[in-house]
Amino acid sequence: MAEVLSLEEAVARLVHDGDTVALEGFTHLIPVAAGHEIIRQRRRDLTLVRMTPDIVYDQLIGAGCARKLIFSWGGNPGVGSLHRFRDAVQHDWPVPLEIEEHSHAGMANRYVAGASGLPFAVLRGYTGTDLPAQTATIKPITCPFTGEKLTAVPALNPDVTIVHAQRADRAGNVQMWGITGVQKEAVLAAKRSIVTVEEIVDELEPRPGAVILPAWVVTAVAEVPGGAKPSYAAGYYERDNAAYQAWDKVGRDREEFTKWLNELTGVKA
């Protein structure tokens, strides 16, 4: 059953050096505050997983938290590249970064397989791409019933999945609405999970289209108002487009990034 903790305590207890960690959220409800807490606690040697790594993953990579990235698209949405990501891949700064690239469909199906207790997923994707030649975790498979050539990808079972949502009740049941990605599947696939929320309430009011994560699949809930900024949380605040634009300048330059990192972690220059 879910335990209500502070974000600091949740990360300290549940995110360990060397873990495979997924922070999911599709343009919306991105768990940025949790990513910053991982940086502050100086976690190292992480395998980071995310369908669409954006600036919080750029920050985690630049802070030296990651040794590997499993993903299907990476960039600063609407702005351009992730420069700390590029620097790590091209120049091993601050540490070398291994990458494992998939399609969106491949990543989503890997989470579903993990959530379903299956060893792999089968899909028709990847045909006509060179990803199978670049990624060892994409394999051809023949349907035993029709003979059709398909593609298999292994299940994803993160050590810990972290997501952000609008609300949780005091028992740890979580409610989110608006644009959702693979948050539910990523939580169900994980060994442990942290959900940051805008608020903890006495009772969750029914909402059309709301996704409920029951307390029994959540390890810890932390109340973190504004925990998705600069992404947005439907019903609470809008996307801060200026912050994404401003990050491009910070992320491009190692010195500027180091200043930002020192401010985040409280290190005096």
Describe this protein's structure.
The protein is α/β, with parallel strands linked by helices and 269 residues long. The chain contains nine helices and 13 strands. The strands form two sheets. Strands 1, 2, 3, 4, 5, 9, 10, 11, 12 and 13 form a ten-stranded mixed β-sheet that branches. A three-stranded antiparallel β-sheet has the order 6-8-7, covered by helices on one side. The model has no long low-confidence stretch (mean pLDDT 96).
Percent of sequence in beta strands: 15-25%
Unreliable residue runs: none
State the distance separating the first and last CA atoms: 43 Å
Mean pLDDT: 96
Give, in order, the helices and strands: EHEHEHEHEHEHEEEEHEEEHH
Portion of residues in helices? 25-40%
* Helix/strand structural class: alpha/beta
Question: Count the strands?
Answer: 13
Count up the helices.
9
Rg is 18 Å
Shape: globular
Main sheet record:
10 strands, mixed
Q: What key attributes describe this structure?
A:
269 residues, alpha/beta, ten-stranded mixed beta sheet, three-stranded antiparallel beta sheet, 24% strand, globular
Helix and strand topology:
Elements lengths: L2 E2 L2 H8 L5 E4 L8 H9 L5 E5 L4 H8 L3 E6 L11 H9 L6 E4 L2 H13 L3 E4 L7 H4 L4 E4 L6 E6 L5 E10 L4 E3 L6 H7 L2 E10 L9 E3 L6 E4 L17 H12 L1 H12 L4
Parallel strand pairs: 1-13, 2-3, 2-9, 3-4, 4-5, 9-11, 11-13
Antiparallel strand pairs: 6-8, 7-8, 9-10, 10-12
Helix pairs in contact: 2-3, 3-4, 5-7, 8-9
